[in-house]
Design goal:
Layout lengths: L14 H4 L1 H11 L3 H22 L1 H4 L8 E2 L2 E2 L21 H37 L1 H15 L3 H16 L3 H27 L3 H8 L4 H13 L3 H21 L12 H7 L1 H5 L4 H28 L35
Antiparallel strand pairs: 1-2
Length: 341
C-alpha cells in the first residue's frame, strides 16, 4: 500500500506566489497601449532626465550654487542672460543656471528621503494593522485619520517646526516634514489590500501549518499588496517637489547657505519680476513644473495601466469569411425497382 507523507512545517511559497504582484505589474506595463502608454513613457523619460541632471549636477552646472565670483571677478548683479551666464544672475550675483541645476539635486534628495521614510513606515504599519486587526488596527486608523484632517501643507509646516529643533533645517528636516504627510496614504492602501489578502487560501494554509505572523507578512502578504504602491510612490514624488517648493517659498525649507532650492529662489524673485527682471523666476519655476509634470505623467500612466477598471485591452478586428451563395443540387429520380449504384 502506498503511503503519503504530509509536510510538518509551513509551506514555502513558490516564486509565482512570492513575486506575483511584481510580475503582474511588469505584464501590465508590457500590454499598455494608446494614451496610457504615451503618458507612462513620456513621464518616465522626463523623470529619468530629471534624475540624471540632479545626480550629475556638479558636472553639468558651470558653477556651484553659492558661487558669486570667478577668477577674482564678481558676477554682475541682476545681469540679464548672455554668453557668460545663460540664465542671467540674481540680486546676490549668483548664476541662475547653476542654482536651477543644483535645485534639482536638492529636490531629488528630499524627494527620495521622504518617499523612502514614508514608504517604510506606511507599508509596515499598514501590513501590521491589516493582518492583526483588533485594537491595534483601531488605534492606527484613528491616528492616520487625525493626520488626514489637516491640510497637507499646514501639516508639513507644523512638522517642520517640530523637526527643526531636533535635526536643524537641512535636507533631512525637510524630508521628515514631508514624510508625515504621506504615511497615511501608504497606510490606507496597504491596510485595505492586507485585509483582503489575509483571507486568501494560501495565507490560511500557511497559518494552519504553523507559520509565524512575521513569516506570513514577509513571504505571503508583502508581495501581494505591494502592487498598489508604485502608483502612490510616483504621485507622492511629484507632490513632494511641490511641497518642498512651498516650504521654501514661505521661508521654512532648507537654509539658503546649505543648498539651492527652487521655492526659495522664487520667493526672492518676486521683487525682480516687478522690476522687469523675469529670468530669476522663469527658469526655477519652469524646472519645477517640468519635474512635477514628469512624475505626474508617470504616476497617471501607471494608474491607467495597473488599474483593472481603467485598463483597455487591444481589440483586434475579426475577419469573417466571404459570404457565398448556397448551391442547391437536385438528384435525378430513380425508377422503382432499380438499385441505386
Amino acid at each position: 500500500m502506498a503511503t503519503t507523507t504530509l509536510p510538518t512545517g509551513p509551506i514555502e511559497p513558490t516564486a509565482s506566489t512570492r513575486f506575483g504582484g511584481l510580475r503582474r505589474i511588469v505584464s501590465a506595463i508590457r500590454e499598455a497601449r494608446g494614451v496610457p502608454k504615451f503618458m507612462l513613457w513620456t513621464g518616465a523619460v522626463i523623470s529619468v532626465l530629471f534624475v540624471i541632471t540632479a545626480i550629475f549636477a556638479p558636472l553639468i552646472a558651470p558653477y556651484s550654487f553659492d558661487t558669486y565670483k570667478d577668477g577674482g571677478k564678481s558676477f554682475p548683479k541682476q545681469g540679464s542672460p548672455d554668453g557668460d551666464h545663460w540664465f542671467g544672475t540674481t540680486v546676490q550675483s549668483l548664476d541662475v543656471l547653476s542654482r536651477t541645476i543644483y535645485g534639482a539635486r536638492t529636490a531629488l534628495e528630499v524627494m527620495v528621503l521622504a518617499v523612502i521614510f514614508s514608504l517604510i513606515l506606511g507599508v509596515l504599519l499598514g501590513l501590521v494593522a491589516g493582518y492583526f486587526g483588533g485594537w491595534l488596527d483601531r488605534i492606527l486608523v484613528l491616528v492616520m485619520d487625525a493626520l488626514f484632517a489637516f491640510p497637507y501643507l499646514l501639516l508639513a509646516i507644523v512638522a517642520g517646526f517640530v523637526f527643526s529643533g531636533i535635526s536643524g533645517g537641512g535636507v533631512v528636516t525637510a524630508a521628515l516634514s514631508i514624510t508625515v504627510v504621506y504615511i497615511p496614504q501608504y497606510f490606507r492602501v496597504v491596510r485595505a489590500s492586507a485585509l483582503s489578502a489575509r483571507e486568501a487560501t494560501f495565507v490560511e494554509a500557511a497559518r494552519a501549518m504553523g507559520a509565524k505572523p512575521s513569516v506570513v507578512i514577509r513571504k505571503y502578504l508583502f508581495g501581494n499588496v505591494i502592487q498598489s504602491v508604485p502608483v502612490i510612490t510616483t504621485m507622492n514624488a511629484a507632490d513632494a517637489i511641490g511641497t518642498l517648493a512651498g516650504l521654501g517659498f514661505l521661508g521654512l525649507g532648507i537654509q539658503p547657505t546649505e543648498a539651492a532650492e527652487w521655492g526659495y529662489d522664487l520667493d526672492r524673485a518676486i521683487d525682480d519680476v516687478n522690476a522687469g527682471m523675469w529670468w530669476t523666476c522663469l527658469y526655477p519655476g519652469l524646472a519645477m513644473v517640468i519635474a512635477i509634470l514628469g512624475f505626474t505623467l508617470l504616476g497617471e500612466g501607471l494608474n491607467d495601466v495597473l488599474n483593472p477598471t481603467m485598463r483597455r485591452r487591444r481589440i483586434r478586428k475579426v475577419l469573417l469569411p466571404a459570404h457565398t451563395r448556397r448551391r442547391t443540387v437536385t438528384a435525378p429520380a430513380v425508377p422503382e425497382g432499380e438499385a441505386v449504384k
